[in-house]
Specification:
The complex is a heterodimer of chains A (385) and B (301). Chain A is α/β, with parallel strands linked by helices and 385 residues long. Chain A is 41% helix and 19% strand. In chain A, the strands form 3 sheets. Chain A has a 7-stranded mixed sheet, sandwiched between helices. In chain B, strands 2-1-3-4-6-5-7-8 form an 8-stranded mixed sheet, sandwiched between helices. The chains are: A alpha/beta (385), B alpha/beta (301). At the A-B interface, strand 3, helix 3, helix 5 and strand 9 of A face strand 1, strand 2, helix 3 and helix 5 of B. The structure holds thiamine diphosphate (TPP) and iron/sulfur cluster.
């Protein structure tokens, strides 16, 4: 075990290198670019033994990962915003083909106008592709989650791709100390990939040909079963990691000062980290409020949300907007509770396009609810600086 | 190699869903005879993704990866890289795509894979239309041809895909047609022996798409060569070499037949002949062919 201090993106590159993918295919986009550069440097220095395909687009990055994974390889890619959107068709393809590709997505707003700053709309828009989705709040969590993602994706009962997202610049370009286990410890943790199907000249199969309506629903159902299995596996994997390496960021959800809370704030990614400071401040003031940082968006941790709502009313913070409806996490939290809870759910949209959200802002949002001044779904600080 | 000496092993199995007289299955039979079973096929959306049969059955006795319409060459890149990591460079990775998947929606991925020097064979079977979706125009559809999206006949000439491919300076590019199986077989064998990106484009006369009788597929390809509208050539190490009748045409040993002989047998060009002859468009097509051969000659000189 050693500690290195580096940015979220270089930590991603480090994790990708240590997971030993056979094939990496990636294309640069701000704020993901330094991941690609980091991996290129490992290749140049002879510290990466896999193939690195410098494709001509993100669409081809995902397609190449699909081809490689179908041939039995472990694969990695990384992207952001417009790159992720360009991949969209192939994201579905990867998941339906049951290929355990691991991808980092650096959350960034979508244009026009061109914005390079943090916003979850890129990954939230991929909600229904069948990918598992994690959101990180520190560089240590980025490292740990990428490694754990391989273990999860390649588990025989999952066999689905995993996306690990984190906020552009706020994490991607901020240095933090990160504990890095030894290579042999990582190897022991991830295990070898055992493909459940592959392109094999000794056992020729045709993958992905025309499928009739009578057979199609069962392939969707199998994906749903796999995601539900992942709900069980994620806590097991994070716990095993904690035992082996000592770091832990929660399982499906990270709860912070939730005991005896009357209100629980639900936040994601870097806003989750910022919220901890807000919770500390509010607790100082004697407010009974806690934080539940959602680490996983797919599979959605329905039961965990129901448990939270048994203790407290919920305040949901979204750095995304499903235009015409509301923030995606707000919708999903309410859907999870429907029929199982009478807890109140309050919601805010904040921080779109990288707009600054400080712990003071989060405190103000919580206080407004706790003081009975909340007047319906709100875009926090829409006109502010 | 004469047909009688080719392998008797059939990798295209019986019971596939192709139309009678389908050039795709004819081409694949020959291509597979040259490639053998150590082959992985990558197929984007096209007629062949229908021909190959319904899940859980297959008509192909090699592993097949079906992939999205525009993604074949990129997916093949991934397969190639994975196989290299496994030390299995003895396996042929082959894209089998239509002209839509090649000239139009898949051109970016193909260009990228060529530029990266990917060790694979890209085969385009060019039936000059989107057949899968019911005969729409593509970038390969010839001038004046009827399709469901060019009802009065296409107003533009096709792309010069040969020139586009050659501009990538890949080690091997060739044209062929299903009408000359020995020539196709030889070209696939040649491509198989070369490392790096290889491109073979097979003219694939499609009975329902071109509107001719299903017993005329071979004849239609032969006439395309004899009229010069489909030249057979190989491009290797920066050099063009014409083959078969195209060689004789190039060397001036035989005359090209008038392109009209090819056009008039296809219902898709009937608007050139009925209700009366469209001299202007017929002249433009003949000029297009003449000009193409003129350019070939200039390249040599
Ligand atoms: C992104 C996308 N757009 C459109 C389609 C519909 N589509 C499937 S096959 C096809 C045409 C294929 O034409 P071509 O490549 O020439 O092959 P052919 O059908 O002639 O064999 C189209 C338009 C698709 N599958 N994917
Ligand atoms: S439409 Fe043409 S290419 Fe497609 S299966 Fe029929 S004959 Fe073959």
């Amino acid at each position: 075990m050693r500690v290195i201090i580096d940015t979220g993106n270089y930590i991603s590159a480090k994790a990708a290198q240590m997971a030993k993918p056979d094939v990496v295919a990636a294309y640069p986009i701000t704020p993901q670019t330094t991941i690609v550069e980091g991996i290129a440097k490992y290749v140049e220095d002879g510290e990466f033994s896999g193939e690195y395909i410098c494709v001509e687009s993100e669409h081809s990055a995902m397609s190449a990962c699909i081809g490689a994974s179908a041939a039995g390889a472990r694969t990695f890619t990384a992207t952001s915003a417009h790159g992720l959107l360009l991949m969209h068709e192939m994201l579905h393809w990867a998941a339906l083909a049951r290929l355990p590709i691991v991808m980092v997505n650096v959350n960034r707003a979508i244009g026009p106008g061109w914005s390079i700053w943090a916003d979850e709309n890129d990954s939230v828009a991929q909600r229904d592709t069948g990918w598992l989705q994690f959101y990180c709040s520190s560089n240590q969590e980025i490292f740990d989650t990428i490694i754990q993602a391989y273990r999860l994706a390649e588990h025989k009962d999952v066999q689905l791709p995993v996306m690990v997202s984190y906020d552009g610049f706020i994490l991607s370009h901020t240095s933090m100390p990160v504990q890095i286990p030894e290579q042999n410890e990582i190897d022991d943790f991830i295990l070898k990939r055992v493909p459940q199907w592959k392109l094999d000249v000794d056992n020729p199969v045709t993958h992905g040909n025309i499928i009739m309506p009578k057979d199609y629903p069962s392939i969707r159902r199998a994906m749903q079963d796999a995601q539900e299995k992942a709900l069980e596996l994620i806590p097991e994997i994070t716990e095993e990691w904690r035992k082996r390496f000592g770091t832990y960021h929660g399982d499906l959800v990270e709860c912070y000062r939730c005991d005896d809370a009357e209100f629980i704030l639900i936040a994601v990614g870097a806003l989750g980290a910022e919220s901890k400071v807000a919770i500390d401040e509010l607790r100082e003031k004697g407010r009974r409020v806690g934080l539940a940082r959602l680490r996983v968006f797919r599979p959605f941790p329905k039961q965990a949300v129901v448990e939270l709502a048994k203790k407290a009313d919920l305040i949901v913070l979204d750095r995304n907007i499903s235009v015409g409806m509301e923030g995606a996490f707000f919708s999903e939290v309410k859907a999870a509770l429907y029929g199982s809870s009478d807890a109140k759910v309050y919601g805010y949209i904040a921080g779109l396009g990288g707009k600054d959200v400080t712990y003071k802002d989060i405190e103000a949002m919580c206080e407004k609810v706790m003081d009975g001044k909340y007047k319906g779904y709100e875009w926090y600080d829409l006109e502010g600086e | 190699m004469a047909i009688k000496d080719m392998s008797l092993e059939e990798i295209v199995l019986s019971g596939n869903a192709a139309c009678p007289g389908c050039p795709s299955t004819m081409g694949l039979r020959i291509v597979f005879k040259a490639l053998g079973k150590k082959t992985i096929l990558v197929i984007p959306a096209c007629c062949t993704s229908v021909i190959e049969s319904l899940y859980p059955y297959t008509s192909f006795d090699v592993p097949v990866l079906n992939i999205a319409f525009e993604a074949a060459a990129a997916a093949a890149s991934g397969v190639v890289s994975a196989l290299r990591m496994q030390g299995r460079e003895d396996i042929n990775v082959v894209v089998w795509a239509g002209d839509g998947g090649t000239y139009d929606i898949g051109i970016q991925a193909m260009s990228g894979a060529f530029e990266r020097n990917t060790n694979f064979l890209y085969i385009c079977y060019n039936n000059q239309i989107y057949s899968n979706t019911g005969i729409q125009r593509s970038g390969a559809t010839p001038y004046a041809a009827w399709t469901t999206t060019t009802v009065g006949g296409k107003r533009e000439f096709s792309k010069d895909m040969g020139a586009i491919v050659r501009a990538h300076n890949i080690p091997y590019a060739a044209t062929a047609t299903v009408s000359y199986p020995e020539d196709l077989f030889r070209k696939v064998m040649k491509a198989k022996s070369i490392k790096g990106p290889k491109y073979i484009e097979i003219l694939a006369p499609c009975p329902p798409g071109w509107r001719f009788s299903m017993d005329k597929t071979v004849e239609m390809g032969k006439l395309a060569v004899e009229t010069g509208i489909w030249p057979l050539y190989e491009y290797e190490n920066d050099k063009m070499a014409f083959n078969g009748k195209s060689k004789l045409i190039f060397e001036g040993k035989i005359e090209r037949k008038p392109v009209e002989e090819w056009l008039k047998l296809q219902g898709r060009f009937s608007n050139l002949f009925k209700p009366q002859r469209d001299e202007e468009r017929l002249r433009r097509i003949q000029e297009y062919v003449d000009h193409m051969w003129e350019r070939f000659k200039q390249c040599r000189d």
